[in-house]
Design brief:
little secondary structure; 112 residues
C-alpha cells in the first residue's frame, strides 16, 4: 500500500520535516524525506499511555524536526526531548516519539 494513498483525489500538503517510505506523499520541501526508510522499531509498548514506534539509533528522524518546533518538551509518551545525536543541541525528532539515549552500566568489581 502507498503510504499516503488517503482516498481518490486527496492531496497531502507538506509543511516540511516529514518522512515517508515511498513517493506518494507529495513531500517536496527542503527538509522532507520521501522514499526514505524511517528505521523505526515495530509498534509496541515503549512506555506511556499508547503504543508507539520509536526511532532506532540510525533513524533519519532523530533530531531532524524543525528546530523552532517545540510546542511541548515531551513526546506522546510523556518522555522529555533529548539530544539524540549528541551534538549539544536539543532538537525534537520527526514524529510523535522521541529517541531515548540508553544508559550503559559498567559493573564495578572490586578485587583485593
Amino acid at each position: 500500500n502507498a503510504a499516503c494513498n488517503l482516498y481518490a483525489g486527496a492531496v497531502l500538503t507538506s509543511f516540511d520535516y516529514n518522512i515517508a517510505s515511498d513517493a506518494t506523499c507529495n513531500l517536496v520541501l527542503g527538509n522532507d524525506h520521501p522514499n526514505t526508510n524511517p528505521n523505526l522499531y515495530t509498534l509496541g509498548n515503549y512506555g506511556g499511555f499508547s503504543y508507539s514506534a520509536p526511532p532506532r539509533r540510525t533513524s533519519i528522524a532523530i533530531d531532524h524536526a524543525a528546530p523552532s518546533f517545540s510546542p511541548t518538551d515531551i513526546d506522546q509518551r510523556g518522555f522529555l526531548f533529548v539530544d539524540g545525536n549528541r551534538d549539544g543541541i536539543v532538537i525534537p525528532d520527526i514524529g510523535a516519539v522521541e529517541f531515548q539515549l540508553s544508559n550503559v552500566f559498567i559493573p564495578f568489581i572490586n578485587t583485593p
